[in-house]
Amino acid sequence: MEDNPNPVFDLWLKDQIALIQLDDSKFTQQVLNKIQASELETATPTDRWTNGSWMLCVAMLGSILAQYLAQIDTNTFTGPVAESLMLLIAMLWAAWQCQLTSEQP
Amino acid sequence: MTCPPSPTDEDLVRMARLEPQSKAFALLIQRHQSRLRLYLRSLCGNNAFADELAQETLLKVHRSLSQFKFESSYKTWLMTVARNTFLDQARLASYTHNIAIRTPAEEQGLEKADESASSSENMQIFTIDLNKAMKSLSQAEREVIAHCYFADLSMDETARVLNMPLGTVKTHSNRALMKLRSELQAWKINDSH
Lengths: 105, 193
Description:
Helix content of chain B: over 70%
CATH class of the domain at 7-101 in chain B: Mainly Alpha
Oligomer: heterodimer
Strand content of chain B: under 5%
CATH topology of the domain at 7-101 in chain B: Rna Polymerase Sigma Factor, Chain: A
Largest interface: A-B, 29 and 41 residues
Number of helices of chain A: 3
Distance between the termini of chain B: 42 Å
Shape of chain A: rod-shaped
Order of helices and strands of chain B: HHHHHHHHHH
Radius of gyration of chain A: 31 Å
Radius of gyration of chain B: 18 Å
Number of strands of chain B: 0
Largest sheet of chain B: none
Largest sheet of chain A: none
């Protein structure tokens, strides 16, 4: 294989091209904005589903909690008190997750 | 006191994978945008179109970061994606090298764009002359020069990206250099003074 017959020109050309600087902070920002926009587009359906699932979870927990609360004797304060408390905490946590999902950019 | 070494491209890819919101990918864009844009400009000969392709390339690269297997350098991978993006668009728009000739208005656009990028008036004129000289090359020669000189890839990397034997790459490169030297003779003479 024939080696480079123009080593001087080869180096000169490489140097000259290296001097052409097209660095532009606007370009970087434009690309980052496009990435963000494209991520929003692709993330929206997933987020909607996640949010819906958490809402369903809150509703289910709320329904079970209502049943447990109905079983508690308010005079003697007996019945599924501990279970109700745990359900209440779980429901609050699910509601918080639901809010987090809806707040995501 | 010694400064910590700057992260390699591959380190930045790993960081961008782990933390997509980090500045790692922005750093990768900053590092390679000049070469990427130069490379695409040399391929398609239209600055605005080349910059659009560069943005699309970087979007594709960002989306497929998880697929990068570290078998080649990040730059080689980036230029491969850029070339495929260019070829896809070229097919779509029946845009070939032969018809990718700037209109006078675009030629002025090139001068304006480069004015902001380079303070040297000589460099602007050189860029225009170089683009004209690139038009004297065949498609294969232009591609080899675009990879080896504009994208700054090695002959081996160019052979891999173009899926060409190394010998063929060297032959195209030598022929292209002869043509470019003849086209840019005035510059070389000025440069030697």
